[in-house]
Structures
1.
Amino acid sequence: MNISPYPHLQQQTRKPLTLADFARMKAEGEKIASLTCYDASFAALEDRAGVDLVLVGDSLGNVIQGASTTVGVSLDDMVYHSRITAAGLERAFLMTDLPFLTYATPDAALAASHRLMAEGQAKMVKIEGGAEIAETVSHLTTYGVPVCAHMGLRPQLVHKLGGFKVQGRDDAAADAMVRDARLLEEAGADMLLLECVPSTLAARITAAASVPVIGIGAGPDTDGQILVIYDILGLSPGRKPRFVKNFMADADCLDTATADYVAAVKDRSYPAPEHGFK
Ligand SMILES: Nc1nc(=O)c2c([nH]1)NC[C@@H]1CN(c3ccc(C(=O)N[C@@H](CCC(=O)O)C(=O)O)cc3)CN21
Ligand SMILES: CC(C)C(=O)C(=O)O
Ligand SMILES: [Mg+2]
């Protein structure tokens, strides 16, 4: 499959990306294209489509294991899928989620991150939380673990929240999220991820942050975008979150659908206004 006519592929080299590349992309206003991934074949597909950042998400509880939440995903599951995803990557940077209750103390987070990095070949770990995980982020940073802090809608808290709902809608919650983003950055977070927050709040946090901010359901103004790979390929059954776009609808194969997603993030045609929240 020859997908070379894409402008973003003509500009890219096959050299492995590093955190410095994401800092440069933020500074230059080049959007970071990210997708989730769970195995080597999809990793190779995403890598040749020009995806910059690959996340082995605990969403594998939903899309691989068929559960309705991510709560049951184990660290062994994450290590396994991280390792088999890493095997398919050449250029893209690999980030892996720490699953529910594997980072409840700083030392537990360090031990779990060790497994994701040493066995799972992750180059960065992602943990869900705000100010309350700042100490953990600081501990990981001290020992050289790159960290992304996942704020806004935190799917691991589904049973506390009572569902998957937009976060940071009132002024007090929005101000708290802005403060937490700053604290996490000061604690050493290398990246932030915002899920399901009003587009205006995501723009505010992105403008204030010196590290790259990736969004999902966070509007067009974050430094990058992420979606679940099966959602862009039309493989997810049932009602879709409003930020999802099926790129398979206008594509003739998986390679063009995935490259079309990357191109749409790069040229800012995804996300459109209807994919964001007020
Ligand atoms: N296939 C898949 N895609 C995802 O994006 C995803 C997963 N699984 N599993 C883990 C979490 C769960 N996510 C979700 C799930 C549902 C909504 C949702 O239905 N949101 C409503 C917002 C409701 C409101 O307005 O408060 C929506 O209409 O989009 C959002 C994120 C995102 N993640
Ligand atoms: C949706 C993304 C951000 C995630 O955390 C996951 O796939 O688990
Ligand atoms: Mg996750």
2.
Amino acid sequence: MISSKNLQFSYSSQKHFNFPDIFCADSETLLILGQSGKGKTTLLHLLALLLKPESGEINIAGNEVSSFTPSQITKVRAQNIGIIYQRAHFTSSLSVMDNILLPNYFAGKRQDKTKAICLAEQLGFADHLSKKANQLSQGEQQRVSIARALMNNPNVILADEPTSSLDDNNCQKVIELLKSQSKLIDASLVVVTHDQRLKDEFANQIFL
Ligand SMILES: Nc1ncnc2c1ncn2[C@@H]1O[C@H](COP(=O)(O)OP(=O)(O)OP(=O)(O)O)[C@@H](O)[C@H]1O
């Protein structure tokens, strides 16, 4: 479960955001739509506890994090949140497999290679596990990002424009995968996008 209340954030005195309240229960989905520059990535990074709000509350899996220390926040993030970034970031010196295993390491868990292989098979990139991530196409990298976000069975999956670089066929596939995988682990799935193709795919929607 993830929720937020009265979230405010500023990059500068000219760039101030007052975000609508968010609520997404376990196993539910939420689509946040908005045109370029409306603050979608900013909101997602606030919900991912990567940015600190000026004011307001964020609750993740029962943790109201406003008064948490940085190390408590890092722990809540590592244990509860899976993030799919707008542009996939990988550690270039590591194989695809080792990149997928990194979240286990950051959460202090044992490296679950069986789960990594299983996700790679479900997401259709099992043949690429020993390659470096930069040898993969954009669409393949997007699917590796999804696998990486799912490795710790997060309570909350946050996806930033997961379909923007994909054709219609792969767009549909990625959304189905995100929805089915999050349902499988009872996670809340929050997607921010300007991709109008996703409008009919999510029952709960918010416009920025
Ligand atoms: N680090 C930063 N410092 C100052 N301004 C920023 C910073 N990051 C983003 N902004 C500004 O805040 C606004 C919102 O940015 P954000 O990336 O959240 O929008 P977005 O809705 O995700 O846009 P897009 O769809 O183009 O990715 C933009 O005008 C952007 O220029």
